[in-house]
Design a protein that fits this description.
- The longest helix has 12 residues.
- The protein is α+β, with helices and mostly antiparallel strands and 118 residues long.
- It is built from two helices and four strands; from the N terminus they run βαββαβ.
- A hairpin with a 4-residue loop joins β2 and β3.
- The two termini are 25 Å apart.
Length: 118
């Protein structure tokens, strides 16, 4: 109350299991992402990989070729040779983001790519 609107994913612990029988059912409404939208938005990705010379360059070149602006980039290296990269990017719609994720997964030594907060 008094703090605007909050959007929660259905699996969030703050969302009642049964909205109709919650204490204040009128405060809950269903919301959906417009997957057809071509509006620009930010997304944060977590990339797990086997670190190697040129890994960061491969990711950077891919982003440039796909016309994706990298807004933030952080790395964390582990003793076992793995690294995690967290990057916030700007994309033009969900389809563009899905294409970026798909191509990142194809880079040599990338183990996984996940969108943060989903």
């Amino acid at each position: 109350r008094g703090h605007g609107v909050s959007v929660h994913v259905r699996s969030c612990s703050n969302v009642p299991a049964d909205l109709e029988s919650s204490q204040e059912p009128e405060r809950w409404v269903n919301a959906f992402w417009d997957i057809e939208s071509k509006d620009e938005f930010k997304a944060t990705l977590h990339i797990s990989c086997l670190n190697r010379i040129g890994m960061l360059a491969d990711i950077s070149v891919l982003m440039s070729n796909m016309h994706v602006m990298i807004l933030e980039f952080n790395t964390r290296n582990f003793k076992d040779g793995r690294s995690t990269f967290q990057m916030t990017i700007s994309v033009n719609g969900v389809e563009h983001l899905d294409n970026v994720i798909e191509k990142l997964r194809k880079i040599n030594s990338v183990l996984s790519v996940e969108r943060a907060g989903i």
